[in-house]
Write a structure and sequence with these properties.
With 331 residues, the chain is mostly helical. 82% of the residues lie in helices and 0% in strands. The protein has 17 helices and no strands. It is globular and about 65 Å long. It starts with a helix and ends in a 7-residue tail after the last helix. The N terminus is likely disordered.
Amino acid sequence: DQALAATPDIPLAMRRDLLRATMRREAAAFDEAIEIFDSVATRASAQGERAIAANARREAGFVLALAGRHKEALARLVPLLDEHDALGDPRELASTLDGVGLAQQRAGAMKEAQAYGERSLALYVAAGDRLGEAAARNQLGMAFARTGRFDDARHHWETALAAFEDIGDRRGTAIARGNLATIFAREGNAQAAREANESALVDFRAVGAIADVTRIQFNLALQDRRGGDLVTAETRMREALDGFTQMGNEDFRLQAIASLAELLLSRADLNAAEVLLDATQPAEAAPPQRRAAILTARARLAALRGQYESSATGFNEAKRLREAAGLADWV
């Protein structure tokens, strides 16, 4: 964890608490992690440890982004850019830029996510920080993929994978492999996609990254669906949906609901899809790609029920949301 690695003179009690917060984050106990990071920031500020306080506040903002609380994450992270710039450590500034990029990405602001990601990557490269560079490439690749720049995404993910494997970082390796699985699936190489996801799943379980385990289970459900095993896909999706709900991750929860609804429609279970969608009302602040995904599922349900005008309205609104956010035509 960069909050620990980059500042070797952290007082022992704070180092212990930063480690504890990181472990709670990896266990998807996001509220607990934020509370601990905030506590460290408060104590560090009181002791005049300005850099430690800023790093802890950044880590809390990063957890907010992981939890899908994008506005709160940005409200915390953006002001820290000037703070880290003033502190004069380019690696810490790069880490904060990467966190802002993640929050922008999860909020659906892909152009902004790419801009922050490129600034972060440039700083890591200039500093010779291979681990930071690989992490930045993972994030930047996702922003490129979500705007249809798949060749750029693949380049960053393959470069990140090679670096993580060389360094021996199992979690980073798993993230890069899971990301590349989406490229393999898009190219129609189902076997390579499954192998990449299952390899990532082994590594995530080994390091106790519960949130990532749930996310990979969801990705495997998508592969089961593409492979025609709809029963297994539904089981995996419901498990993933339960996991995202328990984590309080509204972003991924909406994604899982939309995908599960589409799966139920594929199985001609219109009533179950309708119950699921009727119980889901994305907030206006929800990322546009998630709102569009729910609208698309509702539009498809309307079409299957013969409600063609309603269906056309839903599809058009979903298309408008995605285009306004500069998103590629995929969910």
